[in-house]
Specification:
The structure is a homodimer. By secondary structure, chain A is an alpha+beta fold. Chain A has a single domain (8-69), classed as 434 Repressor (Amino-terminal Domain) (Orthogonal Bundle), CATH 1.10.260. Chain A has helices spanning 8-21, 26-33, 37-45, 52-62, 78-81; strands at 3-5, 64-70. Chain A binds a DNA duplex through residues 25-27, 35-42, 44-45, 47, 49-51, 54.
DNA sequence: CATCAATATACTCCGGAGCGCATAGAATTG
DNA sequence: CAATTCTATGCGCTCCGGAGTATATTGATG
């Protein structure tokens, strides 16, 4: 499941889906990452002030990585979008 | 060119390559984004405290997007096919 | 419905980001 | 080399994230 994001809101939404896919609650993820549940909530809600450290911590714990690429590259992933 | 990143440092390094690929200086990117050149510098250096708003602003200006996916999906990555 | 789990909000405190501004240091070029 | 461009760093300032803690609000579930 590759999720595309360009804004903090989209990033947060994607992370939320990944967390839920792993059957975790915000509190549980907070435990694993050493972050407060409220911080997870803010991140997933797309608070633009959230720090990269928080994003990285959550991604690492959820086993995720980022691909940085130019916009609208119609690769094969297009199919995964719909 | 798809760049993979898991840490603020790797994110910053990737953005730096993208900026340079576009022939921009930090100052020029700062102009376009409304961010200080020092802020661009910090982001590219991988300061973990950098905010998502800064990342998003820079990505938008450079015409980039993120793909959030699970770590290490070797075969699925068709990016290196062309 | 009632209840319990999950998520969002609120408060104070502290630290650090990003601002304007300025400059030091590094890299590039002639 | 020197000269110029680019990048990193410093200071004072304001603002807000995240910690700790607690409580609302929302969402599932029986």
């Amino acid at each position: 499941m590759e999720q595309i994001a360009r804004t903090p809101k989209q990033i947060g939404a994607a992370l939320r889906r990944c967390r839920r896919a792993g059957g975790l609650t915000q509190a549980a993820l907070g435990e694993k990452t050493g972050l407060r549940q409220a911080t997870i909530s803010a991140l997933e809600s797309g608070e633009p002030g959230t720090q990269l450290r928080t994003l990285a911590e959550v991604m690492a714990t959820l086993g995720l990585e980022l691909v940085i690429r130019e916009r609208g590259q119609p690769g094969k992933d297009i199919g995964d979008l719909y």
